[in-house]
Amino acid sequence: MTSEQKKWLVMHVIAIIFALKMVSFGVNGDPQVPCYFIFGDSLVDNGNNNGIASLARANYLPYGIDFPSGPTGRFSNGRTVVDTVAELLGFDDYIPPYANVRGEAILGGVNYASAAAGIRDETGQQLGARISFGGQVNNYKNTVSQVVDILGDEDSAANYLRQCIYSVGLGSNDYLNNYFMPNYYQTSRQFTPEQYASVLIQQYSQLVRELYNYGARKLVLNGIGQIGCSPNALAQNSPDGTTCVAKINSANQIFNNQLRSLVDTFNRELTDAKFIYINNYGIFQSLISSPQSYGFTVTNAGCCGVGKNNGQITCLPGQTPCQDRDAHLFWDAFHPTEAANVIVGRRSYNAQSASDAYPMDINRLAQL
Questions:
Q1: Is 252 helix (H, G, I), strand (E, B) or coil?
Q2: What is the pTM of this model?
Q3: Domain ranges across the chain
Q4: Which residue, among 101, 99, 100, 136, has the nearest Cα to 117 in the 3D structure?
Q5: In CATH terms, is domain 35-367 a member of 3.40.50.1110?
Q6: Can you say how many angstroms the Cα of residue 184 is from the centroid of all Cα atoms in its chain?
Q7: Would you call the peptide bond into 321 cis, given omega within 30 degrees of 0 as the criterion?
Q8: Residues annotated as catalytic (active site), given as ranges
Q9: CA nearest 279: which of 316, 253, 297, 299?
């Protein structure tokens, strides 16, 4: 073989290797943002509750039955909303849980979410240990100190973190596992729904400002979905098992309206940051109002669980779930199926309706 032929062969092999790398990492190359930080509850928890003394855990089958690596702690048969958003942002892998991530892996982002967690510290305490919003913010502060160590100084860390997307999705449990659980909690006797929403928003605002003080500049504030339409709410409080529970949804809407107003306040006061609101309530309303157009045929029952419409509790270990999972809006008594999560994630990233995201969607936020 001549030297020219050898040279051509080497270049050809290099080209093939490069092409294979491009395929494995996706056509778009690097993700839209360098990192994605997630704060939330069981809707987006991906393993932080696995190692703590909590009844709110999902690290067993049938949870994860449709997820590539099986049960991880995700409260779904497969992907969550933030998994879908991570894909759309261009990340090669899903964002790891705080409980497991170590070293330079934190530079891609961390998921701090904890099942049963709320804005209020006492929320969900009847289920055992959980990491409240305040605890998650403290864990993020610990991550920031590690980012400073890795990048060398605070200025470098600040410049890096300001490019990242921050997703906050809490509040559901402050109603589900607090306000509407009068046998365990006093809040419904202490506050009207309007007062309670204001108390929640005040604490929420303080914690989000802490995230801002520790580098967050692109923040996604997620509204609460229609808790009153979950199989659990329908089984316990719906007169016919299909009509959503108005008093719960009404309270959720009060919170959401105040959260949307908070986005305006933050954008007015913190001008070097950008905040957006995701209208999960409205997105879910469209899924419930016209389920067939999204491929759903069952909207009032979980795919697995116990009791009426599988709506009393979550899936039992080893329980056999329904076969037509993509036809179900809900996976268990409280949580959506992967099919529903993917739709919500896509509409959060690229707003399908003008009301899905305010004042812009995640895709546009990432481009700022």
A1: helix
A2: 0.92
A3: 35-367
A4: 136
A5: yes
A6: 26
A7: no
A8: 42, 332, 335
A9: 253
